[in-house]
Design brief:
5 domains, two-stranded antiparallel ribbon, 4 strands
Length: 803
């Protein structure tokens, strides 16, 4: 590449700018023409003049400056298309003579205007448009050089000014115009006078119909703009660039774009005025009120001694059957869907409550047989809902029966009937995508079980009662797990199924509080193993392809399994050993996160790591580490193990989190990760050294531990600084993080050395720690200066090579 100016480039740029200027000039003249036409239309509409049919003048035509004598050669004879007159007048265009001078290149868009652009019967020298002016209706003009403005009388049919009328002026020499051209122009109703330098006006676009009368034509008395110097405007159409010469147009079949039609804003109807809303509200209210009446018949009437048991139960059964029959009859009629669903739902729910009363209050049925009959009733209602394809019917049956069952029975019997409702609706979810039913069938059993567990926690429940509660919790969890897995295999996007699964897992997670430590740990461990196995299957591509479990279901299983594993950790440990168990679990989850790049595993591992770090902080607080007496009382081998595991967690966490897809190298998140990791590592190192010194039983164990901690802090800082200096020219991002972390650790080591060690250590330990830290600082400082000197020399060498 040279720095000299290329003449060819200058020439090419000059030509491009010249062409651009020409095109911009064409655009400006076309806009002037459009403006003149709009003004003409406005004047015609205001004066009430009937439009004269005439073709639209060629784009860009206008009078040219410089008058030419009418009698000079070529004034009119040289223009083949020059005609005067109107088709309506029937007068020959060549009749008569006039002394009016014609301007070279003057043209009009309507008949009755002389070649100079002046209306017939007026002096051409005073016509608008002469000497470069553009005439407007009513005498208005666009002034040009050497222009003279004279008002132009409007052309009114039937007046002397009408084109072709007696006395109208004609262009001299018009008789020499070829007859064919004259006839053609007279038939079109136009008279155009142009100079020999002006090419013919372009014809209409291909496929364009005849000019509509009064639309797009220039009204009488209006001169049409033309290019300067007598040059014709290059015609062009849509999708084509402007060119000089033959007229061009849009391709056949082209139509101008139609602007989009805006939809009229529709006022939103209030919800209570929408179709079917009031009927649904009334139907739901009717279902609730009727079911309350059924419960009163079964329970309150029995408490008051009204009627007999047989009459009460029989009346409830007959009433429910009648409601179901009426609902089936109404459903088949026009407009009876809402009423039919409400009647059928009321009858089925009433029959279910009747079975509950027969089993729980009157003891006419064995609990197992009563649950079986209730299952049959619920299954019949669900089958009817599937037949009618009505989710509201199934929801009303389940919600009504579940809401009023606690009035009829309680405790374990209530749990049994609610679990029956959950089980009866399970097959529906396999064939129907009814998300509301997912929640309604699961939530009542879950809430009732949690309530029973909460009550049993404050009481002293019998072992049988606890076992039955455990059985109910297991049943709810199994039904929720199996149903959700089967549903998501067919519909992977069904998030509500995973939500129902999450709700179903909670009762069993709450059960360990009712058992002693070993039994609770066993229950929680088995539950955690099942849930984590399901989550781990998703991480294996082969097992994931076989089971077809989506990610949201695996996430629910992993979180629930993590809670169960947390219960195991707390059940098998105490305050001192709990951090060890928590940190071990954290290492496992963080390792899995780094191996398979799972954000869920990383989050669970981070939660366990935070809990373990909090436990370590409680067991070895800064106050304990700074006081020799407290350290000797609280620090032991368990603290050492917890601190070592904390260091391992830091290493695995940094490795695993950096492998996540959301973590990018050298960004702010990675810098924060290194800073947090360095801070935790410093504290863990201090806890490790001091705990080892105290646990060894040596008299100076506490002092030795702190001495070793300061030296290890400085060793770590030195390693980080040397690593950053080595990568200074390779990776600036890595060097930045390493150097920043190393400098922070160095500052922390010096603060500890002068504020704590100087006051706590004595004798040879103080001398040793100061000597070691000082030597390491000298090494780092020397290497630091040499690294930056080498980097500066490299930059200077590269700059000289570039020059």
């Amino acid at each position: 590449m040279t720095t000299s100016i290329d003449p060819a480039l200058i020439t090419r740029l000059s030509g491009e700018f010249t062409a651009l200027g020409t095109q911009m000039g064409v655009l400006g003249r076309d806009l002037d023409l459009l403006h003149a036409q709009l003004l003409g239309e406005t004047h015609r509409a205001a004066s009430g003049v009937s439009p004269v049919p005439a073709p639209l003048a060629g784009p860009g035509t206008r009078p040219e400056r410089g008058p030419r004598s009418a009698g000079s050669p070529g004034a009119a004879a040289d223009v083949p298309n020059s005609t005067v007159g109107s088709a309506d007048s029937g007068t020959s265009a060549a009749s008569g003579t006039s002394g009016v001078s014609a301007e070279r290149g003057a043209s009009t868009g309507t008949g009755g205007i002389a070649a100079s652009g002046a209306p017939t019967g007026h002096d051409a020298t005073s016509a608008p448009g002469a000497s470069g002016d553009t005439a407007l209706p009513g005498g208005a003009t666009r002034p040009g050089r050497d222009s003279t403005t004279t008002p132009v009388s409007p052309v009114v049919p039937g007046t002397p000014n009408e084109p072709g009328a007696a006395g109208s002026a004609t262009v001299p020499g018009a008789a020499s115009v070829p007859a064919a051209a004259a006839a053609r122009n007279v038939a079109a109703g136009a008279s155009v006078a142009a100079s020999s330098q002006t090419p013919p006006a372009p014809a209409p676009w291909p496929g364009q119909g005849a000019q509509v009368q009064g639309y797009g034509a220039v009204p009488p008395g209006t001169a049409v703009p033309t290019p300067h110097g007598g040059m014709a405007t290059p015609p062009y159409g849509p999708g084509q660039s402007p060119r000089w010469g033959a007229p061009v147009g849009p391709p056949p079949g082209w139509r101008p774009p139609v602007p989009p039609v805006r939809k009229a804003a529709v006022a939103r109807t209030p919800w209570w005025q929408r179709e079917g809303v009031i009927s649904r509200v009334l139907a739901i209210a009717g279902v609730g009120v009727t079911l309350i009446g059924v419960v009163m018949l079964l329970v309150l009437a029995a408490q008051a001694g009204y009627f007999g048991p047989v009459l009460r139960v029989g009346a409830g059964a007959v009433f429910s059957a009648v409601l179901v029959g009426a609902g089936m009859r109404v459903f088949g009629r026009a407009g009876g869907r809402v009423g039919g669903i409400a009647l059928a739902a009321t009858g089925i729910a009433g029959a279910y409550l009747d079975v509950v009363a027969v089993t729980a209050i009157y003891d006419w049925l064995h609990p197992v047989l009563g649950l079986a009959v209730a299952l049959a009733v619920a299954a019949g209602g669900v089958a009817l809902a599937m037949e009618w394809k009505s989710q509201p019917l199934a929801v009303l049956v389940v919600a009504g029966a579940a809401a009023l069952s606690p009035v009829v029975t309680s405790e374990l019997m209530l749990l049994g009937f609610l679990i029956v409702l959950q089980l009866a609706c399970a097959p529906v979810q396999l064939v129907r995508n009814w998300p509301v039913l997912h929640v309604v069938r699961t939530l009542p059993a879950v809430l009732a079980t949690l309530g029973c567990v909460a009550i049993a926690t404050f009481d002293d429940p019998a072992p049988d009662r606890v076992n039955w509660l455990l059985t109910a919790a297991i049943a709810i969890a199994v039904i929720g797990l199996v149903t959700s897995v089967l549903v998501v295999r067919g519909r992977p996007s069904d998030v509500i199924a995973s939500l129902a699964f999450a709700m179903a897992t909670t009762p069993l997670l709450a059960m360990p509080v009712l058992f002693e430590r070993r039994a609770a740990a066993l229950v929680a461990a088995i539950y955690a193993a099942v849930l984590l196995a399901l989550a781990a299957a998703y991480l294996s591509p082969k097992l994931r392809a076989v089971l077809r479990i989506p990610g949201h279901t695996a996430t629910v299983a992993a979180i629930a399994g993590a809670f169960a594993l947390l219960e195991v950790c707390f059940r098998v440990t105490d305050v001192r050993t709990a951090p060890i168990a928590l940190l071990l679990v954290a290492i496992g989850f963080l390792g899995v996160a780094g191996q398979v790049r799972s954000r869920v595993a990383a989050a669970i591992g981070g939660a366990f790591a935070a809990l373990g770090a909090f436990g370590l902080l409680v067991a070895a607080s800064p106050n304990i580490l700074a006081t020799q007496r407290l350290a000797q009382e609280n620090l032991d081998i368990s603290t050492v193990l917890a601190a070592v595991l904390a260091l391992a967690v830091v290493a695995v966490a940094v490795w695993g989190i950096r492998k996540l897809p959301t973590m990018s190298s050298g960004d702010t998140e990675e810098s924060m990760l290194w800073i947090v990791a360095a801070a935790v590592a410093l504290y863990a190192v201090t806890v490790t050294t001091v705990s080892i010194g105290v646990a060894s039983g040596a008299a100076d164990g506490f002092v030795i531990g702190h001495c070793a901690a300061t030296i290890l802090w400085m060793v770590g800082a030195t390693a980080a600084l040397l690593y950053g200096l080595r990568n200074l020219s390779r990776s600036a991002a890595v060097a930045k993080v390493a150097l920043g972390s190393g400098l922070l650790v160095t500052a922390a080591a010096l603060v500890k050395l002068f504020l704590f060690d100087l006051a706590t250590l004595d004798g040879l330990f103080r001398v040793a720690v100061f000597l070691v830290v000082g030597v390491l600082l000298l090494v780092v400082g020397t290497r630091y200066a040499r690294a930056f000197a080498e980097a500066g020399a490299t930059r200077d060498r590269d700059g000289e090579e570039v020059r």
